[in-house]
Design brief:
By secondary structure, the chain is α/β, with parallel strands linked by helices. The chain is built from 11 helices and 6 strands. Helix content is about 55%, strand content about 15%. The chain has a 6-stranded parallel beta sheet, with helices on both faces. It is globular and about 50 Å long.
């Protein structure tokens, strides 16, 4: 059972999201918060698998709450759930350590799939967000970024590049292990090595490098 903290300042939104997650049968909302400060405190208290945060909340916004949760509760994955998809929000959320960015306007399936993905240690971006990240990027022209990404990936071993491509495809460690016929602990070590050698903070940032380096199969 995936344990989720849900933070949104609108009670009706929380009720709707809770109902969607509950319909899957594999997810349980263990705590709800109405502002970012409460979200941080409840995450520390309940240690959920996933903290699902709105961006615009009183006292402490979701972006700041996400950064604090990543810093103080590293065992909890953070995903943003919002109506706002402007580049500045995406950039700060992903730069702050969030591994999921979901839009309230998306299909309910996206919400369930996204929560499952980040809980499993993978990354998940709503299609609209993914198009922005890959098409517009988080800085610099696309051709320059692609060249830089290929250069960064070139320092990896063939197996590390293979793992990076599967991270970019959104696979969890267990799924990568099954695909490559490795034990999950070995995959975890490969992923940690890849993050370190690329100089990125999390799987989302690694996935961006994988896309821009052309390592993700279409």
């Amino acid at each position: 059972m995936i344990r989720v903290l849900l933070a949104d300042d609108e009670a009706m939104v929380r009720a709707g999201v809770r109902a969607i997650l509950g319909s899957d049968g594999g997810t349980e909302v263990v705590a709800e918060a109405g502002d970012g400060h409460e979200a941080v405190e409840l995450t520390r208290a309940h240690r959920p698998d996933v903290a699902l945060l709105d961006i615009r909340m009183p006292r402490l916004d979701g972006l700041a709450a996400a950064e604090e949760i990543v810093r103080t509760v590293p065992g909890t994955a953070v995903a943003m759930l919002t109506t706002f998809s402007e580049g500045a929000y995406v950039t700060r959320a992903l730069g702050g350590g969030a591994t999921g960015f979901l839009l309230k306007s998306g299909d309910p399936y996206e919400l369930i799939a996204g929560v499952k993905a980040v809980a499993a240690g993978a990354a998940f971006l709503s299609p609209k967000v993914a198009r922005y990240v890959i098409g517009e990027g988080l800085g610099g022209g696309r051709l320059i970024r692609e060249e830089q990404a290929r250069a960064r990936a070139a320092v990896l071993s063939p197996r590390e590049r293979e793992v990076l491509g599967l991270v970019g495809a959104g696979l969890s460690n267990s799924e990568i292990a099954a695909r490559l016929h490795l034990v999950e602990g070995t995959v975890k070590a490969y992923v940690s090595a890849v993050l370190g050698r690329l100089g990125v903070r999390n799987r989302v940032q690694a996935a961006i490098v994988a896309y821009e380096a052309g390592l993700v199969e279409s």
